[in-house]
Amino acid sequence: MAQTRPGPGFRTHTTEPAEVAPLTGALDAQDANPGVRRLRAWAHAALAVKGGERALDVGAGTGSQTRELAAAVGPEGLALGVEPNPGLRAVAEERSADTRARFTHGDALALPVPDASVDVVWCERVLQHLAEPDRAVAEMARVLRPGGRVALLDTDWATTVLHPGDPETTWALASGALTGAANPYSGRRLVGQVTAAGLVVDDRGSEALFQDHRSVAWPIIRMLGDSAVHRGLLTEDRRDAAYATLAEAAEQGGLHMSVTMFGVVAHHPG
């Protein structure tokens, strides 16, 4: 699955190396995930960024997609990554030193660019962390020029699947993925959000992000298990029995653990 469960540990003001390093590692793992890479490839193809355009990456993280946009817009264009976390922004700037990607502090609810000033907006796995995601999408619509395009990619944590195990127990475990995100159903809401912001949907896509079927992602599983016990959905004995079932399945190469990420590409009709 290569994606950590979102939660309160995602702090926008982190600068301590001991706190920035895990965030960087998680983002790097997501960059390497085949499902993430396929969904990104689809979104970039649908956006069809051209040389000379102005592109904005909202929630740039370590800057991987800002650099992708910078390569597409070329020397006559502009690719600006907006990232509120100063630690991640420093990583992005260091990794992008030899590119045309640029970065600035900013908030998804108050983007630091004028109205109708950009051709392309990219926003990946940001809305799930926001208590007011609709406001963020409206803000992206504000900065798009007429005919400009936006790509929103986000996880829907209610699609978390664990197998094997009895359905009641695996549901109790998987439901823990909903407790750590401000907006856990983000993926399924994207189409409605861009439409409400006055944008026109051009295409939709999705990819399941899989955990290795030969090993258990114990840090994630234990977070889910502890959450289920804390919420009274499982006893410790049932939780531990579920752990044993998943471990046995992994030893036999038959574990399934996944979550689905969705995407929408739209344009400003003005």
From TrEMBL:
CDD domains: AdoMet_MTases. GO terms for biological process: methylation. The keyword Methyltransferase applies. Keywords: Methyltransferase, Transferase. Residues 56-151 form the Methyltransferase type domain. Residues 1-25 are annotated as: Disordered. The keyword Lipid metabolism does not apply. GO terms for molecular function: S-adenosylmethionine-dependent methyltransferase activity. PANTHER family: METHYLTRANSFERASE, N6-ADENOSINE-METHYLTRANSFERASE TMT1A. This is SAM-dependent methyltransferase. It comes from Streptomyces shenzhenensis.
